[in-house]
Amino acid sequence: MLTEMGLTVSSPASELERLFSLEGRVAIVTGALGLLGREHCVALAAAGANVIALDLDDDGCGIFAGELSDRFDRNALGIGTDITDLSSLRAAREYVLSEFGHMDVLVNNAAVNDKFEDPAMISELSRFENYPLDAWEHSLHVNITGTFLSSQIFGSEMVKVGKGAIINLASTYGMVGPDQSLYKRADGTQSFFKSPAYSTTKGAILAFTRYLAAYWGGRGVRVNALSPGGVENEQEEYFIENYSKRTMLGRMAHPSDYRGALLFLASDASSYMTGANLVVDGGWTAW
């Protein structure tokens, strides 16, 4: 503490610590068992939040929440939840309210990326000309409708108390078109094409973020998007090399590279920020 003119004021370091602190807050993360979902939960718990991990696997959520509780000495909960099912989301909401009485942060992280049952058909089925209608509809249902429903169910509780932060996970491919050459091997064959559904849904997330920020701006609920770049996750070496060359930093992201950005958006450090898209992509979209 510093004393000036008879007044006791906080030091700059303690003020920054307060701005980024989530002590006593309740943070909900959808898709919590995914690669980035786990990292989001860790960042929030480390900042003092009681984390609610939502994903389809109820047992997996419970185990992960137990790990968070032990590691950070927080009251973390894991709830098996289908974000496309209203009754499932309502049950999760009631559970959270019964345990904590409030909710302060929502991270809409859950999303699907294309998976094809027959590996031999990936190259052909991922082409736009052959892309399956059911894959398109499934992506829209989870990535867009799931975000809409989660925001509606949990965000409405934040509106009631006049404060809260919603963070929607978008993507660089919601801003720019996919570079399909990344999936081309040295021999010229194409292993995969980034799907039309992924870019479409992530672009829609950015539009939805602006809509909701404008709608709830006067009610104390901030809504922002976080657009991450590609994360290294045991992809084939040719892809990692191709992707890295497209970034200014010359590498793919580590899963932990988004912790700071997420904490910024969830905390009071971004108290005058809403309707924005925070891009963390190693310079991918800045060329």
Key features of this structure:
287 residues; alpha/beta; Rossmann fold; seven-stranded parallel β-sheet; two-stranded antiparallel ribbon; 9 helices; 15% strand; globular; disordered N terminus
Would you tell me which CATH topology applies? Answer: Rossmann fold
Q: What distance lies between the first and last C-alpha atoms, to the nearest angstrom?
A: 44 Å
Helix content: 40-55%
Determine the CATH superfamily: NAD(P)-binding Rossmann-like Domain
Poorly predicted tracts of residues? 1-5
Order of helices and strands: EEHEHEHEHEHHEHEHHE
CATH class equals Alpha Beta
- Could you tell me the strand content as a percent range? 5-15%
Major pleated sheet: 7 strands, parallel
Task: Report the structural category.
Answer: alpha/beta
Mean pLDDT across the residues is: 94
- Overall tally of structural domains: 1
Neighbour order of strands in the largest sheet: 5-4-3-6-7-8-9
Number of helices: 9
